[in-house]
Amino acid sequence: MGPTIYDLRRLFALQEAVETLDLAGPPTARMLVPKTASFRRVGLLCGSFNPLTLAHTELAEQARETYQLDCTFFTLAKVTVDKERISGMGLADRLLLLSLYAQRHDHTGVALVNRGLYFEQAQAFRSLLGAAVELNFVVGMDKLVQIFDPRYYQDRDVALRQLFALASLIVANRGDLAQEEFNRLLDRPENQPYRPHVRFCPLPPAIADLSATAVRDDRAAGKQIAAAVPVETAAFLAETRAYAPPLWSDGEVIDAYAVRLKLLTMLYAIRSWAEQEMDFRALMQTALAANDKGRALRRAATGAELRELVRFSQ
Q: Can you list the pairs that 237-243 forms with residues at least 24 positions away whose Cβ atoms lie under 8 Å?
């Protein structure tokens, strides 16, 4: 995985996909993996994937096998409901990690959308995949509770009717929220009309209890996380030090992953030159060094300044 993590052409293409997806435009979905395909029945597992965990991957696989889906897409929204502020991994890195996983697993895809609400995402995927494809959102019980919560809508029932006219839900237990809570929620009078469109998909407790928050917390505490994440996530986090404690260098605190994001932002501003001339892995090694070159790179403020520093040091 090492070279791929530093592949500027691929990272810039993913960053371009994020930046050119118009939040003000109509609901839009972009399929990143596979590039083209034909489906009859798909699953859409929407999340922030910060980072991708075994709870995500096992849910995707279990839903696909249980309900005979042709493909399950990991779907990342440019803005996620209740998580509008981007923190942790950058969106391009999340898409990279999802794509690396999907490329190693059949019947798995990756898509980017410009909407957080499910009924708008359903519109986006209907436009992308066509009217004949059956859409199934794959969610945890915590998300089902949110979907039925009127706080997220101007008119909940109008929005839910729009959603279920386009898609169904496959719901997994999440933490203490299991099938009993699922039945209780759907037995409420205001929710009963939508019950035919919602199905349950049980997961083993050890998987259902996994969370990206716990992975981030364990990384910050220096704990092992390999048992909670796929190998792609473990390798990426080990290489980039995302969520890990900062490095100390001559009294300076260095967040290695923050340096990666800053350099990528500046390099993207000088994309043509960077793709031709820049060895991103070598640049990262220099930028994290405890010397004058490293400090100068960490303090650079623009792509032009970064380019001059690189040229001067060659």
A: 237/51, 239/1, 239/2, 239/5, 240/5, 240/93, 242/51, 242/88, 242/89, 242/93, 243/51, 243/88, 243/215, 243/216, 243/219
DSSP H helical ranges for the chain: 2-5, 8-19, 54-66, 91-103, 118-129, 141-147, 156-166, 179-186, 205-208, 212-220, 231-240, 256-269, 271-277, 280-287, 292-299, 303-313
Q: Where are the alpha helices (DSSP H) in 104-247?
A: 118-129, 141-147, 156-166, 179-186, 205-208, 212-220, 231-240
Q: How far apart are CA 169 and CA 186, in angstroms?
A: 12
Q: Cis link prior to 34 (omega < 30° from 0)?
A: yes
Strands 29-33, 108-113: pairing kind: antiparallel
pLDDT in tens, 24-72: 999 999 999 998 778 999 999 999 999 999 999 999 999 999 999 999 9
Q: Specify the pTM.
A: 0.92
Do residues 169 and 197 touch, judged by C-beta distance below 8 A? yes
Task: Order across the sheet with 198-200: list the strands.
Answer: 29-33, 108-113, 71-77, 41-47, 134-140, 167-172, 198-200
The answer to whether 181 touches 141, Cβ cutoff 8 Å, is: yes
Question: Which tokens is 266 given?
Answer: 């500046």
DSSP label at 177? B
Interatomic CA distance for residues 147 and 170, integer angstroms: 13
User: For the chain, how long is the longest CA-to-CA vector?
Assistant: 71
Query: Does residue 143 contact residue 121 with C-beta atoms inside 8 Å?
Result: no
Domains of the chain, first to last: 2-212 (3.40.50.620), 246-314 (no CATH)
- Residues of the chain with pLDDT > 70: what percent? 96
